[in-house]
Amino acid sequence: MAKLGQTFIPSEIEDDGYVGGGGPVPAGKYLMQMVKNEMIPIKGDKGDRLNMDFQILEGPYEGRHVFQSLNIEHIDFDARQIPLKQFKRLCEACGQELVDDGDQLLHIPFYGAVIVRKNTQYGDQNDLTNYAPYGKQKAPAPRQEAQKRPLERSQASQSEAQASRSQGGASGGATRGDRSTSQRASSHSDAPWHRQ
Description:
By secondary structure, this protein is of the alpha+beta class. The chain contains three helices and five strands; from the N terminus they run E-E-E-H-E-E-H-H. The chain starts with 27 loop residues before the first strand and ends in a 9-residue tail after the last helix.
């Protein structure tokens, strides 16, 4: 038996119909901000994904969350082009010119275009398709350690990188999966989402 320590009277609780969760928010434009982000490895050692958690700041869905994942580092050059363009738009909406850490985008309001994607396995889910500045976002002074780099690697450097990954285990070198956490963290300094 679980004693509540009080007498609960359901009729005294105001009920506006919202109890959290309840599926995705309707498609539309919402004022929101990023509240959390993390880089995680993609299955099969194919790169890294940026997982982001956005919170709606106003309106009837205030406090609800929308999640987005972008494969901003991927061994397949083509597979990362759309995510990089999306991340570029997010950075611009937040007024950031040079980004070397996802935390630079935390708690900066912007407008997000939210859609509902059908998903028979997990239920319908929200996704962000575009971003726009909220008011006049002023870019902060560039960080000292951030350097402008070209957004795309040449086809030759892509081929070299893929060849070195496939030969890493055979030549005794460390493969991506063998790297320690500190090596993995330092490798993000060369990730294309840091490039301009």
